[in-house]
Amino acid sequence: MSVYSKPITFALLSAVVILVGTFITLFIPMMLPSTQPVSDYIKPYTAIELEGRDIYIREGCNNCHTQTVRPLRTEVARYGEYSKPEEFAYDRPFLWGSRRTGPDLNRVGGKYPDSWHYKHMNDPRSMFAKSNMPAYGWLAKRKLDTKYSYRKVSILGYGYSESDVRNQIEEYRKKVTSADYPARAVRESVTPPELRSELTEMDAIIAYLQKLGRDVKALKKKEMRMVAEASPVTASKRNPFAGSKKAAEEGEKIFKKNCAVCHGEDAEGGIGPNLTDDKWRYGNSDSDLYTTISEGSPNGMPSWKGKLGNEAIWKVITFIRSQREQD
Amino acid sequence: MKENGYDYSVVRGFAFSAIFWLIVGLLVGLWLAAEMILPQLNLTPWLSFGRLRVVHTNGLAFGFALAGIFSCTYYILQRLTKVPLAFPRLARFHLWLFNIAIALAALSLFAGMNTSKEYAELEWPLDVGIVIMWVIFAINVFGTLIKRKEKQMYISLWYIIAMTVTIAVLYIVNNLEVPVNLFKSYSIYAGANDANVEWWYGHNAVGFVFTVPILAMFYYFLPKSTNLPIYSHRLSIIAFWSLVFGYLWTGAHHLMLTPLPEWIQTVAIAFSIFLIAPSWGSVVNGYYTMRGNWDQMRTNYLVKFFIFGITFYGLQTVQGPTQGLRTLTAFFHYTDYIPGHVHMGTMGWVTMIISASFYYMMPRITGKELYSIKLANLHFWLILVGQLLFTVTLWIAGIQQGAMWKATNPDGSLTYSFLEGVVALYPYWKIRLIGGLIYFVGIVVFTYNLIMTARGAGVKLAETRAQTA
Amino acid sequence: MDWVDWAYLAFGGALVAVFACIVFYYYKPRRKRHVEEPKYRMLDDD
Ligand code: HEM
Ligand code: HEM
Fold first, then answer.
1. Among protein residues, the one whose CA lies closest to atom 14 of ligand 1
2. Is the shortest distance between the CB of B18 and ligand 2 below 6 Å?
3. Could you name the CATH architecture of B2-457?
4. Residue A224 neighbours by CB distance under 10 Å
5. For chain A, is the Cβ count within 10 Å smaller at the N or the C terminus?
């Protein structure tokens, strides 16, 4: 009698057949270190970041945003350093996603200042007029529930004590409610008065977004500084378009499209500083400006070298200079 | 038609549950499609895209497809074993449990209780409920098989057994999680491992929900409704074993170029290419069954559904493996091309086969003829046109999107900002919405036709007999 | 080639061999009648 006449044998045989591939591609990798690498420079989430991550999961952000930068040239240019396995050692569940209706977020931490995120989350179309992202202003109207925070970090084995967790929460509350929090004005504009001195779900999700990729970026910066210190002074850079009217006009277009959301339509300032005055945080020479634009700044200015390229950056600088001269 | 003591109440119950969840899931899908062009439609937290998309996928994969599968399984099982269900009362309990579980699933997903793992979003208490439900189903499947009068099990029963076993393994392994409270849990796996487990599950949920049981229907209802034997039984044997063996290796084609170890990705691609063979084994088997009888495409309204259905399956199983290849995945992964792929399978293959199976079963359950063949034909054309408009549009959209993401200027900088890539897709998304609406109208016609049939509005026994025999 | 490559090759070869055996078994001409018989039986009234 054949196996087609014995249901139980047939079931057992199919179980064996499906388990071969399962065993080799699933159970064996689980035992290998290559799927679970750890690294000292990747730090676990704080209790607040973890609460933010849980809100990200609850709202299903992963249905539109991925969190893996693939090792492809254009992808690295758009988002930054490609993702490494050790970065996800604390991610349970993983949030790599499968659809990119919105951009990848694995390197978004530190790309923009907090104030940008408050504005953007509250009304995405205020930053990108044609974005189709839902508005999440209501997150700022809900107090963050931290009842399970300790329980969560202990299940995940992050190694914080109960008082560590309490401190993390209190410190973050102090940070975002303090008078000199840089994003204070925007935060207050989206947060109802009764919650301004509390932590909201909005605060937590922004804390989480700012954590994404930050450890990798910090490591990268450290490496870069080491290289810079070891090498002799780099050749000074000069603007090839200096004074050209045409370049300034083209630069203006590029500026309006990319920079104006933060620095204002006429570079008068907003989330980012005014670019028409004499105050420069990172130096005023052509070469300083070039570096600030191409590499970004620690306070939230994104790096533009991948997106704009050499020529466009110089044109923007020509435009900024021309603004100054008009006054 | 109770002459053999067959129990059809659950067959009918699951059929109408499937239709109900289909309508719900499609309304949600239409809302989603509209939200992608009109973000103002994200009116409330529970209507926001991120939460709603999960209701759509779960509602249709589990509410609609799974109910359709249960309905047809309970029918095929009794017919092919020639005995009534082993535990009819348990089957009725299964029907109730299923609908309660899906309703709670929808509510909890609307409320944002979800684990984020695709097609396994339900939180742990519902996971427990679903495992219990699956055991109840398995008891009936194996109980009936053991009691059977027909010694050798026909092809469809192999597929049903494979599904019953595999879904249990998949669901349990992927959903292992540590509860925080009643509404929240964390996966026991981390990072790359969690991804590997999830897509091993995800791909095989597609394989063992959208493929294996649908093939069970195909292998039973096509010969039955044409009265032609399947072309090759031995080909179906080879195709069956290679399919169930090959599927489990391929999950990582969803994770190409991610931090997952490279060898797992390579193995997944090799097996994905291999899968073309057994998939086309079934396609060829279907086509050759019709050899010399292609006129039935015109004369027998059911044949269209089966032949177009298996054709879409054939297209999908070529498209799937190719879009996993490293060079192509670099281009297509994460774009709209993938929802294009998905919906040809779901709106083409899965819906067409389930629809035709219901049309075949319903008259045999109620003892009354199909209410209207005209409406069945209208239903066919509407879902065909709607689906093609939807999927072909999204393929083109995906190609454009992929090209825009990759475009660079001579100096190596990117040509388009991310947002320019979004804006360029609005026209395609509008066409997709129109395609979805046409398809939806087709499903409304289907529903009406089936309800009228079940209520016994159709008569004229001789006419339809001639058409389907 | 190191042992991993050999293991890959051996495993791949084994899979092909199993596959070939199954095909040869079911496609033996003298088994044809027997193997194909169920497809007619399923068409009988059930
Ligand atoms: C041999 C058969 C098939 C292969 C090898 C295959 C391959 C693939 C691949 C590689 C992807 C991922 C694409 C990406 O994210 O870049 C995918 C996605 C998908 N496929 Fe297929 N496919 C096959 C048949 C089918 C069939 C018959 C269906 C039935 C409906 C289907 C439904 C899906 C779904 C739902 C997804 C989306 C998963 C997600 O990202 O959420 N596939 N398929
Ligand atoms: C009126 C018909 C339909 C419409 C308008 C529709 C709409 C949508 C939309 C807008 C998405 C999200 C796509 C994205 O994120 O880019 C989606 C995803 C999905 N839909 Fe549908 N849908 C329809 C029919 C169906 C049917 C009948 C099924 C299953 C039986 C189905 C299963 C899915 C699945 C599995 C996904 C996830 C795809 C992925 O992850 O790549 N849909 N649908």
1. B333
2. no
3. Up-down Bundle (1.20)
4. 11
5. C
**What is the predicted pLDDT for the residue at B377?**
97
The tokens describing A182, both together, are 């840089």
Residue pointed to by tokens 């791949």: C12
Question: The whole model's pTM is what?
Answer: 0.90
The DSSP secondary structure of B46-66, one letter per residue, reads GGSHHHHHHHHHHIIIIIIII
Task: List the Cα angle B33/B354/B372 in 5-degree steps.
Answer: 100
CA nearest B115: which of B19, B198, B42?
A: B198
Instruction: Tell me the pLDDT of chain B averaged across its residues.
Output: 94
Cis peptide before A93 (omega within 30 of 0): yes
ipTM of this complex prediction, to 2 decimal places: 0.94
Span B85-138, pLDDT tens digits = 999 999 999 999 999 999 999 999 999 999 999 999 999 999 999 999 999 999
Q: Could you tell me if B1 lies within 8 Å of chain C, comparing CB atoms?
A: no
Quick: pLDDT tens for A186-232: 999 999 999 999 999 999 999 999 999 988 888 877 776 666 556 54
DSSP A61: G
Q: Cα separation of B315 and B276, whole Å?
A: 10
Query: Cα separation of B152 and B238, whole Å?
Result: 17
Select from B355, B338, B369 the least CA-distant residue to B468: B369
Dump pLDDT digits (tens) for B432-442: 999 999 999 99
Across the interface, whether the CB atoms of B238 and C35 are under 8 A apart is answered no
Residues with CB under 6 A from ligand 1: A 98; B 118, 206, 210-211, 250, 253-254, 272, 275, 279, 313, 316-317, 320-321, 323-324, 329, 332-333, 338, 341-342, 345-346, 350
- Residue A250 identity (one-letter amino acid): E
pLDDT of residue B468: 46
For residues A106 and A166, is the Cβ–Cβ distance under 8 A?
Answer: no
Question: Domain map of chain B by residue range?
Answer: 2-457
Averaged over A116-131, what is the pLDDT? Answer: 95
Alpha-carbon gap, residue B200 to B268, rounded angstroms: 10
Interchain contact, A70 vs B196, CB within 8 Å: no
Measuring from atom 17 of ligand 1, which residue has the nearest CA? B320
| A301 DSSP assignment | P
